[in-house]
Design goal:
This protein is mostly helical. It has a single domain, classed as Orthogonal Bundle (434 Repressor (Amino-terminal Domain)), CATH 1.10.260. It is 54% helix and 5% strand. The radius of gyration is 11 Å and the shape is globular. The chain starts with a helix and ends with a strand.
Length: 76
């Protein structure tokens, strides 16, 4: 079952990898993968992922997300 974050990433065309978002968020790949798998993440990590996703959306002329909750992450 895909998480909201995974669904968001897979909607990007051209394709965006987990590595791309982790790099933009300045996070270890393992941290991003855990977030995408639905494991608990800190609010700071969620904000970094939101920033990265919104940077991609902004570059593509897409509407940005407004809140970390829209990523569907398990926040601690």
């Amino acid at each position: 079952m895909a998480t909201t974050l995974e669904e968001i990433r897979k909607q990007f065309v051209p394709r965006v990898t987990q590595e791309d978002i982790a790099r933009l968020a300045d996070l270890p790949l393992s941290t991003y993968r855990n977030a995408e798998k639905g494991k608990n993440v800190s609010y700071t990590t969620a904000k970094a992922i939101l920033f990265a996703v919104n940077a991609i959306k902004r570059d593509r002329g897409e509407e940005e997300l407004g809140h970390v909750e829209e990523l569907g992450l398990a926040l601690v």
